[in-house]
């Protein structure tokens, strides 16, 4: 029988299927269920500085006697410390009561909090840390390097203050994603997650209001992750890739591993089908490997990546005209 073990961020995983950061990993009971279903690791729901700040502002707005600076400071410190303490306790519990790697996740907007949260998370016992970062550049007078430097600075700053491995969860809005990933590896990141699924706006034409587009991914969303995993895994060899978005079945896992992913993160499909989907995915991967004669994941990882193709251009956008010119 084929062996499914793999290594991600220096961590030994029993298989490459990871539960992505979301409300699915917000409690110990949920984490246990995913472990029982066979998950190789879990990424905890992100600790959002913005959300903590919002809760603090709401408490101050609702509170009486908040015209005193001392009272405001007390509420701010209490609310922040309480939320962070809850998160750290989840890490400690998960490490004590499960046997799979626990990867923490943070999303901040101030430099001090990135390092402070990261250090506390390491002390709590997390096996690794995922930096959940996405910035929309709306300044027409700025250039790409200014935007990208934020990512490099955060990666460098955090990796210098913690010893646990750090990965960067990225969006795809970069002028040169390959160069960005390469620079992040130089800045200390041990892995990247391709890609972040972030809030997308929509417009209600009847009420003239901004609404939210689909929160969950669809199976077709795998195309972007597949393309860039195949390209980046060949162009940047010294960093692990965890492919994410559009992973809805076992074949999706196989495809992304063939493209060169080290691990695959699942989220939206678990909301729809529950933890048992993890078991199905692992079963499909096992059956497929046995049928193809692959005794380990390393035997086929990257077998269909960019450089392995006789015509690598199949992963390039220029092929759009070739394949769709018949549609007139």
What does this structure look like?
It is a single chain. The N and C termini lie far apart (49 Å). The chain is globular and about 55 Å long. 45% of the residues lie in helices and 16% in strands. It is an alpha/beta fold and 328 residues long. It has an 8-stranded parallel β-barrel, surrounded by 8 helices. Strands 1-2 form a two-stranded antiparallel ribbon. Strands 10-11 form a two-stranded antiparallel sheet. It has a single domain, classed as Aldolase class I (TIM Barrel, Alpha-Beta Barrel), CATH 3.20.20.70. α2 (49-62) crosses α3 (69-97), α6 (177-186) crosses α7 and α8 packs across α10. The chain has 11 helices and 13 strands.
Write the layout of secondary structure elements.
Elements: E1 6-8, E2 11-13, E3 17-19, H1 28-37, E4 41-43, E5 47-48, H2 49-62, H3 69-97, E6 102-107, H4 111-124, E7 128-132, H5 144-161, E8 166-170, H6 177-186, E9 191-194, E10 201-204, E11 209-212, H7 222-235, E12 240-244, H8 250-259, E13 263-266, H9 268-273, H10 276-292, H11 319-324
Parallel strand pairs: 3-4, 3-13, 4-6, 5-6, 6-7, 7-8, 8-9, 9-12, 12-13
Antiparallel strand pairs: 1-2, 10-11
Helix pairs in contact: 2-3, 3-4, 4-5, 6-7, 7-8, 8-10
Subunit structure: Heterotetramer of 2 PreA and 2 PreT subunits.
Function: Involved in pyrimidine base degradation. Catalyzes physiologically the reduction of uracil to 5,6-dihydrouracil (DHU) by using NADH as a specific cosubstrate. It also catalyzes the reverse reaction and the reduction of thymine to 5,6-dihydrothymine (DHT).
Pathway: Pyrimidine metabolism; UMP biosynthesis via de novo pathway
């Amino acid at each position: 029988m084929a062996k499914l073990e793999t290594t991600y961020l220096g961590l030994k995983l029993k298989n490459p299927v990871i539960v992505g950061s979301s409300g699915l990993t917000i409690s110990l009971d949920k984490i246990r269920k995913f472990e029982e279903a066979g998950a190789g690791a879990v990424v905890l729901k992100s600790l959002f500085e913005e959300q903590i700040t919002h809760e603090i502002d709401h408490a101050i707005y609702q509170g009486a006697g908040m015209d005193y600076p001392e009272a405001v400071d007390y509420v701010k410190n209490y609310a922040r410390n309480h939320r962070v303490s809850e998160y750290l306790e989840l890490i400690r519990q998960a490490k004590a009561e499960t046997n799979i790697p626990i990867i923490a996740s943070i999303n901040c907007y101030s430099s001090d909090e990135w390092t402070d949260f990261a250090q506390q998370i390491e002390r709590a016992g997390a096996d690794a840390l995922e930096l959940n970062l996405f910035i929309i550049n709306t300044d027409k007078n700025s250039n790409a390097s200014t935007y990208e430097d934020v990512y490099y600075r955060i990666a460098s700053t955090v990796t210098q203050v913690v010893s646990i491995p750090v990965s960067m969860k990225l969006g795809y809005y970069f002028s040169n994603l390959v160069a960005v990933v390469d620079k992040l590896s130089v800045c200390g990141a041990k892995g990247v997650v391709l890609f972040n699924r972030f809030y997308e706006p929509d417009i209600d034409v009847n009420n003239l209001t901004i609404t939210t587009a689909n929160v969950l991914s669809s199976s077709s969303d795998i195309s972007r992750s597949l393309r860039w995993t195949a390209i980046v895994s060949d162009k940047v060899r010294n960093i692990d890739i965890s492919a994410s978005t559009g992973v809805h079945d076992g074949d999706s896992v196989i495809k992304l591993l063939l493209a060169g992913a080290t691990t695959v993160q699942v989220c939206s499909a678990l909301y729809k089908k529950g933890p048992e989907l993890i078991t199905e995915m692992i079963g499909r991967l096992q059956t497929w490997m046995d049928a193809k004669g692959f005794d380990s994941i390393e035997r086929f990882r990257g077998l269909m990546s960019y450089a392995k193709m006789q015509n690598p251009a199949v992963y390039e956008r220029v092929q759009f005209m070739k394949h769709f010119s018949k549609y007139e």
